[in-house]
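Project outcomes to date are best conveyed with an example. Our students and postdoctoral researchers have been running inverse folding experiments weekly, and each run begins with a structure described purely in tokens. The record below, which covers 903 residues, was selected by the lab manager from last quarter's runs and is presented without edits.
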């Protein structure tokens, strides 16, 4: 049997790419080491189609609609409709059915909204790939890859298509998604025999697997469905459903409530029939009324919509929520541990200071514009010899870099690491043309930068032999050097002089990079760590400025006001970290390095971690320990990260935050939130939105439950006292399913309350409803009961018309709801303000809509027939308004008392 993909790509089904040499693969795919041209790539894309796996077919809308009927509540209502019809109340039965359908429509729309939010998020997280096109590195959508493309990978990248490796340095790949093997597999470029099984093809990297170590480049041999993972029929999961611990808890609560209410209804039914001897049919209708009155039918849908809208709002503010529970956790974050480079600072690097033995240079210019003078602080004597050393240093730094500088849209852009880009810019300022001046020293091998090693090195060859250039953290490189290049040639390393320069640059907040070299044998083909153990010659130091983000300074201040500590965790030098921390107003008098706390046990580390704000020269494993230490003393920790090694710390943190721009795929997948702009300010926004969503969920619950409570009390009272029901079951359904849902929807759009970021974080174990809010729900239930029952009794006394009394009662309940909406916009702060009534467009629209609905309910003949309503006169409406206003004022008075007690 042929698979569909085999039929689509017959020629490539049989190709054993792993058994071909690199040359053969390149020839077979009509490709080139420098990549395809843009036109050729576009042509191939038209032939092969996008590099995407087929998606799980979304559920058919009809199925989705039908699934809305699968819930306990609906079964209860359907049973009620059947029995109601059986005892001859056909209209009631029809209305119950209509309500069931409305409920399904609301659920259907809400689900669509939620899926839309999640779909948008997935689109924002679409994978990218670094390719060579026309010899230039460029980032493209992974979906645009075609066979023949050359893809460049580094640790943390997900392999974006099936690749035959062209180059692999210390590469390990996690192939679990494809083979199930959980240990990473080492890769190289040597071909393997044709019969080799998939899991042992060490010269291939397959779509969907993860590069956990090293750097590699590979030729795309298959894309999309033609890849190995595509062939096994792997489908991309469809969008997840919106659910979080709180939503699940509320769903369970709704279920529990449903069963309790059914039990209570059954008991009341039994009591009425057996003790009081009521008519079975009448009582059944009353009990159905009780059940529908007490069950908060709209609550789950409203909560889900509120969550979905919160997620959308966060995405607008550049925080993409991958994992929904984060929305809730964000509101209770007490500590944010942030990277420095790119998150607190702009990651727009400029070399400002250069030191070669005995001389310091100041570099002018800003950003990536490759223009600016380099001034010698020492004046004229011997200037030329010092400049020659400077050029040697700068050329060494460029040789040991991968970034490229490109002119784009009137400005200059760096492809690759911004810090390396700054080195290329410096080269231009020093009169070096990297493409021309580095060409005589082709690169033979690379030891890539790793945070644990804190340096990188490259091996080059020229006419006089081999040479290794290394660049990295000065403490590391100074420890490996015993000589230094100086204007006269070479001399012994003057370590004290270099340390002074390092401290000077770091105290300015500059990130300091050292560059060194050593000569090697001409036939050397590979660098290993052993080549970098000693015997290097220091070329010089580079001081690189990376200005703080202004908006991040403000965001750190806001976090502090919100009771959240912000800690900087950086791989940079302590003095650099301190200088930057001071700009952010952090406690920078004590800076601790990763090495300092390696030996501390957990309690000691926890104590230190709470006190100290700045951690320098940290490695990813230090981040993990810090998270654990902070959590051990009850902190709720958000931690940022970008590298593959940050993944454990991101997973362990209460909220893992990955960088969307410079973060690796591995970090993004481990994180709960991805920042689209890598900016600290977006974390602060996400916290604010998280607090707002939680607050809005709380408001929606506090708003919805009293309506149910009030109506249930009215019905129970009437049954127990043997009186006519002040509201019929149909009228109750109208209130719960139409007016309450419409009004409660306003809370999904409620903006943050003014003081949201001026309060301490919520305790994570605090229940969503405090005793105070439960009291509020009880109070308002009683007030609504009083309003409705009072008007009902008054009207019944006046003229004895049951329908008129009921019409009054229902309108009183809805009027109370409408005003209570404004009470609830602030749970404790006063609502008797102009802003409360006009500040939220959704609230105003919802109330206007409900007013129209009530007019229709009261005056429109068809609705009058169904709901047994009658027209009301002006005096009636005044009574209704007065009752609702009284309830509003009583709730405001209660808030005032609560505020006074809190103060
Ligand atoms: P932060 O945590 O603030 O974001 P970082 O994670 O960028 O800092 P690292 O990337 O771990 O810090 O860098 C630590 C040190 O390693 C730097 O101070 C620098 O000296 C050196 N370094 C960084 N990038 C490179 C590179 N591409 N080549 C050589 N050395 C580097």
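After processing, the design step wrote out the following sequence:
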């Amino acid at each position: 049997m042929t698979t569909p993909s085999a039929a689509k790509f017959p020629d490539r089904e049989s190709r054993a790419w792993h058994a071909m040499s690199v040359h053969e693969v390149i020839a077979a795919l009509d490709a080139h080491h420098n990549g395809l041209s843009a036109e050729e790539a576009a042509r191939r894309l038209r032939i092969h189609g996008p590099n995407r796996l087929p998606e799980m077919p979304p559920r058919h809308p009809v199925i989705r609609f039908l699934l809305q009927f699968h819930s306990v509540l609906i079964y209860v209502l359907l049973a009620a409709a059947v029995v109601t019809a059986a005892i001859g109340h056909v209209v009631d039965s029809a209305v119950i059915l209509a309500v069931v359908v409305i409920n399904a429509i609301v659920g259907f729309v809400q689900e669509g909204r939620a899926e839309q939010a999640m779909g948008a998020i997935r689109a924002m997280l679409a994978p990218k790939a670094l390719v060579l096109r026309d010899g230039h590195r460029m980032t493209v959508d992974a979906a645009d890859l075609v066979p023949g493309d050359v893809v460049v990978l580094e640790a943390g990248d997900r392999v974006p298509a099936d690749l035959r490796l062209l180059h692999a340095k210390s590469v390990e790949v996690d192939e679990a998604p494809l083979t199930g093997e959980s240990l990473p597999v080492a890769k190289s470029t040597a071909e393997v025999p044709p019969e080799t099984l998939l899991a042992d093809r060490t010269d291939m990297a397959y779509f969907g697997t993860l590069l956990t170590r090293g750097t590699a480049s590979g030729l795309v041999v298959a894309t999309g469905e033609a890849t190995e993972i595509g062939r096994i029929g792997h489908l991309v999961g469809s969008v997840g459903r919106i659910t979080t611990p709180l939503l699940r808890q509320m769903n369970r609560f709704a279920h529990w409530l449903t069963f309790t209410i059914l039990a209570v209804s059954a008991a009341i039914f039994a009591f009425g029939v057996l003790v009081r001897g009521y008519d079975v049919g009448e009582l059944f209708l009353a009990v159905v009324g009780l059940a529908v009155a007490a069950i908060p039918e709209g609550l789950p849908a409203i909560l889900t919509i509120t969550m979905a809208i919160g997620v959308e709002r966060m995405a607008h503010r550049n925080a993409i929520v991958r994992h929904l529970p984060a929305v809730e956790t964000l509101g209770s974050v007490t500590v944010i541990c942030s990277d420095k480079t790119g998150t607190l600072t702009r990651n727009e690097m400029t070399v400002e200071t250069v030191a070669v033995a005995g001389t310091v240079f100041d570099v002018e210019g800003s950003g990536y514009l490759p223009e600016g003078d380099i001034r010698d602080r020492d004046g004229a004597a011997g200037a030329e010899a010092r400049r020659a050393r400077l050029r040697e240093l700068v050329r060494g730094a460029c040789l040991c870099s991968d970034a490229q500088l490109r002119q784009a849209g009137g400005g200059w852009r760096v492809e690759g690491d911004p810090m390396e880009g700054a080195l290329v810019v410096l080269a231009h300022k020093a009169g070096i043309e990297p493409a021309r001046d580095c060409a005589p020293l082709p690169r033979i091998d690379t030891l890539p930068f790793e945070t644990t090693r804190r340096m990188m090195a490259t091996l080059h060859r020229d006419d006089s032999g081999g040479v290794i250039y290394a660049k990295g953290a000065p403490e590391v490189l100074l420890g490996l050097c015993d000589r230094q290049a100086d204007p006269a040639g070479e001399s012994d390393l003057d370590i004290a002089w270099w340390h002074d320069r390092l401290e000077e640059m770091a105290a300015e907040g500059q990130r300091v990079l050292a560059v060194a070299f050593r000569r090697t044998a001409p036939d050397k083909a590979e660098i290993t760590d052993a080549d970098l153990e000693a015997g290097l010659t220091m070329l010089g130091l580079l001081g690189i400025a990376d200005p703080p983000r202004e908006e991040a300074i403000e965001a750190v201040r806001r976090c502090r006001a919100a009771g959240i500590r912000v800690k900087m965790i950086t791989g940079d030098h302590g003095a650099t970290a301190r200088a930057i921390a001071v700009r952010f107003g952090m406690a920078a008098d004590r800076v601790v390095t990763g090495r300092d706390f390696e030996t501390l046990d957990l309690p000691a580390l926890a104590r230190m971690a709470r006190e100290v704000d700045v951690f320098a020269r940290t490695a990813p494993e230090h981040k993990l320990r810090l998270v654990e230490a902070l959590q051990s003393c009850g902190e709720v920790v958000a931690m940022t990260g970008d590298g593959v090694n940050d993944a454990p710390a991101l997973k362990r943190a209460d909220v893992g935050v990955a960088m969307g721009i410079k973060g690796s795929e591995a970090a993004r997948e481990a994180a709960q939130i991805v920042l689209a702009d890598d900016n600290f300010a977006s974390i602060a926004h996400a916290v604010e939105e998280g607090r707002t969503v939680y607050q809005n969920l709380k408001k929606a619950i506090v708003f919805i439950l009293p309506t149910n409570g009030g109506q249930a009390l009215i019905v129970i009272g009437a049954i127990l006292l043997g009186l006519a029901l002040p509201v019929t079951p149909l009228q109750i359904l109208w209130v719960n399913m139409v007016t309450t849902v419409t009004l409660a929807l306003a809370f999904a759009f409620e903006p943050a309350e003014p003081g949201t970021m001026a309060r301490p974080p919520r305790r994570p174990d605090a229940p969503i409803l405090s005793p105070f809010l439960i009291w509020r729900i009880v109070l308002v239930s009683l007030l609504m009961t009083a309003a409705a029952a009072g008007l009902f009794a008054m009207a019944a006394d006046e003229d004895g018309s049951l329908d008129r009394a009921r019409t009054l009662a229902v309108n009183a309940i809805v009027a109370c709801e409408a005003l209570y909406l404004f009470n609830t916009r602030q749970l404790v702060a006063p609502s008797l303000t102009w802003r409360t009534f006009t500040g939220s467009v959704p609230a105003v629209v919802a109330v206007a809509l409900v007013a129209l609905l009530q007019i229709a309910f009261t005056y429109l003949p068809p609705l009058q027939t169904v709901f047994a309503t009658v027209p009301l006169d002006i005096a009636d409406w005044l009574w209704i308004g007065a009752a609702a206003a009284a309830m509003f004022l009583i709730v405001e008075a209660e808030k005032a008392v609560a505020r006074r007690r809190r103060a």
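Confidence is low (pLDDT under 50) at residues 1-13. The first helix runs from residue 4 to 8. The training component of this project remains on track.
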